[in-house]
Amino acid sequence: MTNLENDLLLRALKGENVERAPVWMMRQAGRYLPDYMKLKEKYSFFERVQTPELATAITIHPVDQIGVDAAIIFSDILVVPQAMGLEVQLIENKGPFLPDPIKNSEDLKRIHIPDVHEKLNYVFEALRLTKKELNGKVPLIGFAGAPWTLLCYMVEGKGSKTFDQAKAFCYTQPELAHQLLQMITDTTIQYVKQQVKAGADVIQIFDSWGGLLSPDDFKNLSLPYINQIIQAIKEEVLTIIFAKGAWHSLAAMAATGAHGLGIDWCITPAMARQLAGPSVTLQGNFDPAKLLSPIPVIRKEVKKMLDDFGGHHHIANLGHGILPNVPVAHAKAFVETVKEYGLQRTMDPLHS
Ligand code: CP3
Questions:
Q1: Which residue has the least CA distance to atom 10 on ligand 1?
Q2: Which of 104, 178, 286, 333 has the fewest CB atoms nearer than 10 Å to its CB?
Q3: Does residue 344 carry a pLDDT above 90?
Q4: 4-9 long-range contacts, Cβ below 8 Å, gap at least 24?
Q5: Average pLDDT over the chain, rounded to an integer
């Protein structure tokens, strides 16, 4: 393992006391950055994802330009369904489109658990190259979608506010649903293990649609599969679970032994801490839309967030991905305020 110049994120995830909270932003690479938009004019989404040199450049932009304390590899959660044999398209201004989604047991025969070396080697190449280019500056985060969130796209075939077709699939064909979730889980375990071998210091599992499920359904359809992934890797790498909206299961998620839990802005840090228990590190939870506020408001609200989390066992982040219409100066103000105020408040005896 390389020695890192800035290992705040790793220390925060291990529960160590840190000078200040580390800061990064979900979906920090791309979308709102002018250099990304330039590459977008020249190369398609999957060209950007599958060309290690491009993915590496995009991954490093926010480290150099915004000053975040971690890099997250530029890729997408949907590369896993693609590797399992489903066609995935990305339609400009509309999002993901899977023309032949899974609807029944016949469809399930079309997909398989792939050899990740063969199908997803470009991700491992990108991680290796990024690790080299970062040269120990900040840690590198690898990631995967949670099985439930991937099932949502694989069954619904596109984005949705409710993912009701995906839910209907689970409620009407539960055995098939669990079979699919297990196939995704088995693929994901191989996938994230290879990401670690290729240099990922942390693995984050994105369950973006976990909060669409009732607490009971989350415990049935999502948590057991996230748990399998965490059990398979937690001894070899630091792990974060971000299950948006699934605050009701913070205690159960902490019980998996994950090092960090992401929370969104619909729960207070105090409530999340009470539910998650004292030891796990919490990550979040700035409302991404609040980055559209005037900069002085952003600064004030970031300070409040840091105070509310109380200084330790906290990774400053947004409560979901950064929005494409956020001005770069606002993203910078978010990161700079965490850095300045975080240091100030840990040095101020009134705050400790
Ligand atoms: O920091 C980063 O941007 C790292 C790379 C990253 C992307 N997607 C790149 C991307 C990560 C971590 C993701 C995760 C992802 N992808 C999630 C989980 C996180 C979340 O936001 O909930 C989900 C649900 C997806 C699926 C997905 N991919 C959607 C819904 C879309 C279209 C809408 C959008 O986000 O713009 C994508 C496409 C996508 N993935 C883009 C990027 C930069 C935009 C496409 C483009 O730039 O052409």
A1: 76
A2: 104
A3: no
A4: 4/136, 4/137, 4/138, 4/139, 4/201, 5/136, 5/137, 5/138, 6/69, 6/137, 6/138, 6/139, 7/139, 8/69, 9/69, 9/70, 9/138, 9/139, 9/141, 9/201, 9/202, 9/315
A5: 96
Write down the pLDDT at residue 345.
72
Distance 16 CA to ligand 1 centre (A): 31
Geometric angle at alpha carbon 257, from 304 and 148, rounded to 5°: 85
Distance 18 CA to ligand 1 centre (A): 30
Q: What does the pLDDT look like over 16-73, one tens digit per residue?
A: 999 999 999 999 998 899 999 999 999 999 999 999 999 999 999 999 999 999 999 9
Q: How far is the CA of 344 from the centre of ligand 1 (A)?
A: 34
Please identify, by atom number, the ligand 1 atom nearest to the C-alpha of residue 73. 4
Q: For residue 61, how far is its CA from the centre of ligand 1 (angstroms)?
A: 16
- CA dist., res. 314 & res. 9, Å (int): 9
- Are the CB atoms for 330 and 336 separated by under 8 Å? no
From atom 12 of ligand 1, which residue's Cα is the shortest distance away?
Answer: 27
- Phi and psi (nearest 5°) for 312? -115, 165
> Which of 24, 27, 150 should be mutated for ligand 1, with most atoms under 8 A from CB?
27
Supply the pTM of this predicted model: 0.96
Q: Which two tokens stand for residue 118?
A: 């063969």
Give the DSSP H or E segment for 285.
strand 281-286
Run of H or E residues at 206: strand 202-207
Q: From atom 22 of ligand 1, which residue's Cα is the shortest distance away?
A: 208
Cα distance between residue 82 and residue 324, in whole Å? 25
Helix (H, G, I), strand (E, B) or coil at 284: strand
45 lines ligand 1 (CB under 6 A): yes
Please provide residue 95's backbone torsions phi and psi, each rounded to the nearest 5 degrees. 100, -165
Cα 74 to ligand 1 centre (Å):
9
